[in-house]
Amino acid sequence: MSDISHEAEKPWEITMREKGTNAEIDYLLAIDEKSPISREEAEENLRDHFAFIKAFDIEPVK
């Protein structure tokens, strides 16, 4: 799992290169032209997800 998640040009590697060690990883960086949904769709899904969490006062899982 670690090998796959740390490949070049994947979220972890991009974050390390651009923001340094211990920076929060933006997993939207995983979306590319091969992804089944667009970045815009993913962002909308995240907004909906966090609106749901807020509306029902649920602790998000990290």
What attributes does this structure have?
48% helix, 2 domains, mainly alpha, 3 helices
Task: Explain what you see.
The chain is mainly alpha-helical and 62 residues long. It has two domains: 1-30, no CATH class; 33-62. The protein is built from three helices and no strands. The chain has helices spanning 2-5, 11-19, 39-55. It is globular and about 35 Å long. The mean pLDDT is 87.
**How many distinct beta strands?**
0
**Portion in beta strands:** under 5%
Q: Give the class from helix and strand content and strand pairing.
A: mainly alpha
Domain count: the total is 2
The whole-number mean of residue pLDDT values reads 87
Low-confidence stretches: none
Shape: globular
The number of helical elements comes to 3
Largest sheet: none
Distance between the termini: 18 Å
**Rg, Å, rounded:** 14 Å
| Helix content bin | 40-55%
